[in-house]
Each structure stands twice: as C-alpha cells, then as structure tokens.
Automatic annotation (TrEMBL), chains A, B:
One of its GO terms (biological process) is rRNA processing. The gene is rnj. It is found in: Cytoplasm. The lineage of its organism: Bacteria, Bacillati, Bacillota, Clostridia, Eubacteriales. Its cofactor is Ca(2+); Zn(2+). Belongs to the metallo-beta-lactamase superfamily. RNA-metabolizing metallo-beta-lactamase-like family. Bacterial RNase J subfamily. NCBIfam families: MG423. HAMAP family: RNase_J_bact. Ca(2+) binds at D471. This is Ribonuclease J. Residues 17-33 have a biased composition (Basic residues). Signal peptide: none annotated. Gene3D superfamilies: 3.10.20.580, Metallo-hydrolase/oxidoreductase, Ribonuclease Z/Hydroxyacylglutathione hydrolase-like. It comes from Eubacterium maltosivorans. An RNase that has 5'-3' exonuclease and possibly endonuclease activity. Involved in maturation of rRNA and in some organisms also mRNA maturation and/or decay.
Length: 581, 581
C-alpha cells in the first residue's frame, strides 16, 4: 500500500485512538489483574510451584516435590496440591520450568497423570533431558508437548509472554523467567546465584535484568534460600581449585561424592583427574544417569578413554584412580553409604583411600552424613569434608547478591519465595533495607492469591494448597489417622488380643500376639499375667451382663493398658479382636 | 624415742632398703599396670564413663546417659553397659564426677540400682546438688555415700589419689581429675574450655596443670568435642555483652531460652534484666528446678524482688519483662515449643515479643529448632538466633585450647576421649602436630582395655560395652528384633487377618484389621479383595491337604503380600492369626 496523506491521517487517528484506548484501559479493571498463586515453596524448602492466572488463561512455573519430614512415617515424597490446577485445567497454557532439580521438576509426572490432558512443557535443553528421563520411566512421553527453549528466548502463549533469562545455579542450564501480561510484569528468579566464573562461561544475564528493571517490573519473586547468609556465595570454580590442591601429590585412591545433578562439579572432578592422569569411574545409579544425560546433551565434556568400568579398577594403581559416586547426603543405601558399611559390591574402603565429600548436608541430614564420615574414618581412610576444605559452594544467592538483584530490578512489589517462614521475613527486611517500601512487600503462604497490576498488589484470598503425601502407589490417600497410627506403633509397638466368642461367651483364647513391644522370649510372665487380666475383664463383663462387643473391647483395652503401663511404663497400641463362631 | 647413732644408722639402712626396694619395684610388673577402660563416650557424643582399675581396686569417672538416635524407635534414653562394673563391684572404691551435665551424671541412678551396694560419690557442690535431685526422685538417697569436694581437693581411696582441678565449661563447678596410682598418673580433662573471663571469676587452673605436667603425667585423656573447630572458644561473658545490646532500647517483651544447666548464662540474663529494670519470670520445669538448686547453693545471685510469677505477668508492661524459659532445642513439649504452637498455658506469642534463642542446636536437633523459629516468626514475633547475633558460645575447647593443654601437660601417652570417630582421629592428629609421638597416641573404643604405666601404654583387650536401651521401665530389654518391628510398623503399618478354625477348617472370618496402612474408609474395595485373597489361600490349602498352621499362615501371608504390594507398593507387617475352637 502506498502511504498517502489521507492514509497517514487515518493511521495517525488510528494510533491516537489506540493510544487513548490503551490509556483508557489502564489500569485494568479488577477482573483483569494478574493472579499469582504460589502452590508450594512458601514456608518451606521444596515442592516449588506457582500458578499465574490472567483472565481465562493460566501458566504454571515449576512443579517440584519435597522429601518427607521425620514425622511423616513411611512417606516416600510430598507433592504440591494440584486441586486448583485440576479445577482450572481448561485454562492451562503451559508449564514453564526454571531448572532440573527435583524440587522443581519432581512433581511433573504426577501432575501430567492427574490432568489427563496433553501439557505443553517449556524448558531448556538440559532441564528437558532430565524431565524426559522421568516421562519415559512413567510412560508419559505422549502426554506432553515438549518445547525446548534456550536462555534469551521469548514464548508467547495467549496473553502471557515468557522470556527465559540465564542465571547461575548448582545445576546447568538454569533460567529465571520474565513474565509479561497486559495486567502486570513479573520477574521470577527461580533458584539462582551470581557466578562470575561459571564452569560453562555463562554468567547470569545481569544486563538483561537491569534493562527489564529500568523498563519497569511490577512484581519480583526471588529465591530466599540463602538470605540468612552474609556476603556473596563463592564461584563454583573455587571448588575446582581445591580439587587440584587435593589431587596434587596424592598417592591415594580418590573417592569423591557430590550431588549427581551438579554437572559442573562433576566436570571439575573429571578435569582434575585428567590433569593428574587418573582414570575416572562413575558409580551409583543417579550419578550414572546424570553423566549419561549430561554428556549426551553436551553439558559434560569427557576426555576420550578416561572413563573405566568399576570392574576394571584392579588393573590400575591407587594413584591412577578417581571414583565419582553418590551418597553425599549420607544415605545408607547410596554408593558411599554402602562403601562405609562394607556393603559395596566392588569397592572396599582401605587405608590408602582419600574420600572427598563435596557437598553440605541438606538440613535434616546432618547426622546421616556424620555417621558415614565416622564409619569411613573407622575404616582408616582419610576423609575430607567441608569443615576442613573449601570443597563445596552453595547454588543459592546470599545477601549481597540478593541486594544486587533488588537494586537492578527495582520492583514495584516484592514477594519473597522459596524459603521457610523466617527466610521470607528476612528477605522482606533485606528488600526494605535497600529501599523497597515496606507496604509493597508481601509475605504470602502456599495457596495465597496475590493479585497484581501496574499500580497495586494485594493478597485477596486463598486456594487449597495442603501437602499431598505419596506412599508407594498411593497419592494423597494417607492422612493424619494413618500417620498417627504409624507413630504410635513406632514408639511402643503393638499388643493384640484375640478371643473367640459364641453366644456372648468367650470359648477360645485369649490369644496374645505382640510386636515391637517387649522381647517376647524374656517376657513370658508379663504375657501370661496379661492373659489373666483379659480373662478377668471378660469375667467381669459376663457378671455385669455386658454383651455388646464394643464395651467388651473397651474393658479389655483398659485393663490391659493399666497392667502393661504399670509393668513397663509403655503404651503399646492395644487391639482386642473378638471373633464370633 | 631418742634418736641414737645406732638408730640413725638403722634408719638410714631402712631408708636405703626402702629406696632400693622402690627402685626394684619400678617399673611395676605387668599385673600392676593401671587399666583404663572407657565404657562410654568414645566413638560417640554422650554416656561418658571410664573405669580405672589398679590391682584389686577400681574407681569410675562419670556415669552419663545419651539421647537415642532416630532409628531407636520409642527408646527414651541410652545407658553405658554396666556389666564390667557389676562383675567387679567388690573392687569399687568410688565414683568421681567431673560436672553435672546429663551425659556425665544421667546414668548414676541406674548404676546405683544395678549395683545394690552403697556407692561413694565424689563431686563438687553444684554437681552434687544436681545428683541429689535425681537420687531423691528415684528414692536412692540412702544408697550412696555423698562426698562433696571442691577444686583443689585431693582424695585418697586405696591406691588412688584423685585431685580435682578447676576447669571452665557451660555448667558451673566443673573439674578435671588428676589420678595418681603407683602404676601411672593420668589427667582426665572432663569437658572443658578455657575462659579468661568466666562469670564466676574462676579461670581454669592452668598453673596447676602445668605443674603436674612438669612433674610428669603418663596419660592424658582430653575432650574432643570441638576439635574440628579452629581457634579459641569465646568467653561466656561475650554473650552477656550481646544481651546488653539486645536489651538496650528494647520496648518488647523479651523471651529468652537457653540450656537450663547453663547457670552462668542465666545469671547474665538476670543481670541484664536488672540493669534495664525488667522483672524476670522463670518458666519450664527444668529451668525452675535448676534455678532453685543453683540459687539455694549460691551459684546464682538473684537480686531481691526481681522474680515474679508468670501469672502476675499482666501487671507489667512488655518493656518490664524478661521470661527465661526451656525449649532451646526446639523440643515441641518444652515451654518455648508450646508457646510457638500456641499451646502454652500462660503466654501467647505476639508481635511485641522478642524471642532470643541463646543456644546452638545439638546435632540432630537442627530441624526441630528451625521449626520453632518458623512458627515464632509466623506469629509475628522477632526472633534472634545464633546466625544473626553472638548469643551463644560453646562449652568445649577448640583447637588452640587443646594445643595449649597438650603443651602444658606434655603427656607420655595420649588418649582422645569424648568424641565421634572422626573427632578422635582429628584430636590425635592435633596432638601429633604439637609434638606427641604418633606411637604414643591411642584411638580406643568403648570397652577397650588400655594398660598404662610410667613406661608403656597399650590396648590389651576389650570388655563388653554395648549401648543399653531404656524404654519406660525396661533397661536393656529392647533389642534389634523389637526395634526392627517398630521400624517396619512405622513405615507401612499393619495388616491383621484372623480366622477361626475347627478341625482344620475355617469356620469364621477372615476378619481383617489394619492400622497405619491405608485410610480404611476409602479402601473398602482393597480390604474386600484382600479378604477374598485369604479365602482363596485357605481353599488352596484345604485342596492341597495342608493342615499345619504355620504352612497355612505362610500361604496367607504370601498371597496377601503379593496382592497388597501390587495394589499399593507398600509392605505392611502381615499378621495371620488362626484360632482353634
């Protein structure tokens, strides 16, 4: 089309109208706000998941799992509550993943199963490689629409524009997300640190964040994990320097454990091994899987002929070997745990071993890690752990990094995420300290509905977001009753009394079975007297004319409770069973 | 007698003979060596106890308890193994206690009960005060011969001379022991640190230790708890300075928790409260007990009229109150835990509260402490904990202090004690680093018999020294079978099947009862099908002519296991019960 004056005028009018209508539409009405709903990761470390909802469209950021607390007897994993997402499944435009740690991707297969629809998943290559492993294992590859992205990409899904921004973290290919909607713009950092000497050379894209910040970011959501730590988290490459120091002049066989997903750590171990002409053995299932995925996708550069099989270990001298293995958290069933307990199939710890634990215990694992170190020391090996060498750095930003991000972003509103209650509060104080208005900082909880636009932000309600417990094949079928029973059984065991009844009279028994209560062989007298107590209770019932079974059972339970407690100070679960013939 | 020349000559001869015979007797023959047998506290933190045996005489140093590991389901406490002491009870000359912490005195009442003889106990005044509380509670006051000593005292019991030497520690009135026998001299540090500004003004008696060292100490036994920490543990008084800083200008109600036994810490809180004109409430059973004992015995100086009852709290402004309370380890049932969970009888946490946690989590308690902090933050209070303020110092010597003691003592032989395996090894390396010959350092374990005299030291054997588990009234009656059952029950619960039999045929049932396995109300189908599976198994037995009960039970167990595992991936404990009528 040739642009004429008339056309120009029309265009100008059009533009003006557009401009006006834009201005008229701003700020959007209440119903047009962006809803941000953290489903998991607030008030806890783990199971990170956030819903972003605008009008009738919804995207999800991350879908992680969490490992159970000590009090969750027998529970395998804990998931976020998918109820709100299931209710709004028709709105779902896609699942955007920041990185490949379990607390960000571990819930995906459960969500996909639950939704029963094809879910578009956006993730960087390495993250997608790890998700793929899970999809294959759960036979769900056909249930998702895999979209591999890279840092710098922008994806438009309905009203949502999502930009992937490079960050550093303890796993390769991590990104933050810039989410743009007509109502508001959001920067979600995901898990991050700032590493000026990252192993892959890709420093967190601070320029882009600064640019977006200067254009105006309405809501910042940032990782609170390390907000209690002063200073700046050291670079991953600082650990490599320690490895070189430890390898130099070492004649021992070297066994190193770290988090399998920390591919850059593994790279540095392999590089150090190559420098000192050592062969490398990869040991432990998750380490083997991770090395396979990472080298297939090009995230791990392995020199030719450096890897050997653990079965060929004997062909090499101690000084020619490095074993990279699992078990950095002291897990008794992981490879290092089995070595420490003398139960590893191919490797016995000996005096000429140097064991390097290149990790920190995750809170709650401190005692397990100590236990493994003690066992390894008992076996005569030299153990190098964090207290005595700089062999681990965190993947999360400390205070100075968090302040830098606040300063680059200068958000209107701030929502600290990924952290326990005290961390969120400290993160809020940190933001206030660098100039964010206290009234614009929000401490939310799982399920909070945070409504935000260019001008305002508030918490307007709450959706269901309780932890969902997984035990075996059961997802969410275990509640407090079952857990309380397990707790009671774990403390004082079980005392079963069986009586066969006929026409209201006991005709056989009482038979007694106990487990986890006393050592039965040495407690004959106790058991015999308990049997007499039951007989007395039955007789009393008969004499009093008590015939309904629940009353009889109560009598038995109470008389046994009194007797057993008086003799042992223990309170086993007492189960009276009456059988009618 | 008038001393004549003849007499003089005789005396001289006598002296010479004595002298000769002394020399002839040195070194003593093998049977005259001093046996040092650590019964607890090696390869672990807790239940400290050491036997010293010379010829037919024996003394014991400390008799502590330990708190159970996570895997010790339902166990209340763990004791040292008293078998060797019971076997040699006739040799026992006395029990010598270094200080009043539970891991040094908590086993005494159990030992006294077990021995059934009157045991002489030597302890300083405050330590004895704490022992007395326990003796009264267990009605054992008549079973012991209490001997109160003070630092500087020497006690001769048979061939043993024991000297009490002032040390600093996180409880008042702590001592090290210098033990002199004809065979060898030993310095046992007990738990200690070096505090140049102790609250009671009594600095560890380094002069005396140096003097004994210069006279020659054969064996040094020293506390390894903090050997992994570089530097010098700060003075207890440094914490007081922090309290003043926190109190100054504070308008909030102040709630402080610390270890009840740390009387000097409590003193500093009271002093700070007095300075800022605040009243003090003592809350929590163990805190109330400890303050009572400590002030009765003069170890705590409480200004007049400063203590008030918690029920009178409402008569004071927030800025006029300090509450000293229990629960520094995050124990949910202790006072602070109940406050955090909104279950305290007299105190509700509010925004205008400053809660100070003047303690570090004991290893294993990290998560419980975090949980309490998070709850308190959730309730809006300001929580001050170690990460953000210098409000706790350890009671144990760090590396520089340990080196100083090595240097003052210059022992012939060294036995690191009170520590997990890795700590003992690090302590050995530390001693070697300051000049002790590696061959003269011994890493022993609980039960090791260390034989020492002026010239030699070696580990010659082992006595029984397994941990003894206490559950309720039962001491040592819980073994691996019971613990394994509790563990299994805690993981997947329990599934009971009861069938009444008559002449080899099932005539009633199968009845099914499950606990801690599935939520029964939502699992009717599962339970019904399980019942069918049992019926099938019974039928199969009948058809195959299987009549013996153990085979029938096995069939039931196996078919149920298969079915339940296939449906749930869980492995409950399956208990088939057959009743004959």
């Amino acid at each position: 089309m040739i642009e004429t004056q008339q056309n120009k005028n029309e265009n100008r009018n059009q533009n003006r109208q557009n401009h006006r209508s834009k201005r008229r539409n701003h700020p959007p009405k209440h119903k047009d706000k962006l809803k941000v709903i953290p489903i998991g990761g607030l008030g806890e470390i783990g199971k990170n998941m956030t819903v972003f909802e605008y009008k009738d469209e919804m995207i999800i950021v991350d879908c992680g799992l969490k490992f159970p607390d000590d009090e969750m007897y027998g529970i395998d994993i804990v998931l976020p509550d998918f109820s709100y997402i299931v209710e709004n499944a028709d709105k779902l435009k896609g699942l955007f993943i920041t990185h490949g740690h379990e607390d960000h991707i571990g819930g995906i297969v459960y969500l996909v199963k639950k939704l029963g629809i094809t879910v578009p998943i956006y993730a960087t290559k390495f993250t997608m490689g790890l998700i793929d492993k899970k999809l294959v294992e759960h036979r769900l590859t056909t249930k998702v629409d895999r979209q591999i992205v890279k840092a710098g990409d922008r994806v438009q899904k309905g009203s949502f524009e999502v930009e992937f921004i490079r960050v550093n973290h303890s796993i390769a290919d991590s990104v933050a997300l810039y989410i743009k909607t007509p109502a508001a713009t959001v920067l979600h950092t995901g898990d991050f640190k700032i590493d000026y000497h990252p192993i892959d050379g890709e420093i967190m894209d601070l320029q882009r964040i600064a640019k977006l910040g200067s254009q105006g970011i309405d809501l910042l959501m940032a990782d609170s994990t390390n907000v209690e730590e002063a200073g700046f988290t050291p670079s991953e490459s600082s650990v490599g320097a320690t490895f070189y120091n430890l390898f130099r002049g070492c004649k021992n066989r070297i066994i190193i454990t770290t988090f399998a997903s920390n591919v850059h750590r593994v790279q540095q171990i392999i590089d150090a091994a190559a420098s000192y002409k050592r062969k490398v053995i990869i040991n432990g299932r998750s380490m083997e899987n991770m090395v396979e995925v990472a080298s297939d996708l090009g995230y791990l550069k392995i020199p030719k002929n450096i890897l050997i099989d653990i079965k060929d270990m004997k062909s090499y001298k101690d000084s020619e070997l490095v074993i990279i293995t699992t078990g950095s958290q002291g897990e008794p069933m992981a490879a290092l745990g089995r070595m420490a307990h003398g139960e590893h199939r191919f490797l016995n710890i000996k005096k000429e071993d140097t064991v390097i634990i290149s990790a920190s215990p995750v809170p709650g694992n401190e005692k397990m890690v100590s236990e493994v170190i003690n066992k390894l020391v008992d076996l005569g090996s030299e153990v190098v752990y964090k207290k005595f060498a700089d062999i681990h750095v965190s993947g999360h930003a400390r205070q100075e990094e968090l302040k830098l991000v606040q300063t680059l972003v200068k958000p209107k509103f701030f929502l600290p995420v990924h952290g326990e209650a005290r961390m969120l509060v400290h993160h809020a104080a940190l933001a206030e300290g660098v100039g964010t208005d206290k009234r614009n900082i929000f401490i939310a909880e799982n399920g909070s509905i945070v409504e935000v636009d260019h001008r305002s932000c508030k918490i307007t309600g709450k959706v269901q977001a309780e932890p969902v417990l997984v035990d075996g094949l059961g997802v969410g079928d275990i509640g407090n009753i079952v857990l309380n029973d397990r707790k009671r059984l774990s403390e004082d065991g079980l005392f079963i009394v069986v009586v066969t009844m006929h026409k209201g009279k006991a005709i056989s028994g009482p038979d007694i079975i106990s487990r986890g209560f006393v050592y039965v062989r040495e407690s004959e007298e106790l058991i015999n007297t308990a049997r007499d107590e039951v007989k007395k209770a039955l007789l009393a019932c008969e004499e009093k004319g008590v015939v309904d079974w629940s009353s009889i059972k109560n009598e038995i339970r109470e008389s046994l409770f009194r007797y057993l407690y008086s003799q042992t100070n223990r309170k086993p679960m007492i189960l009276p069973i009456l059988m009618e013939v």
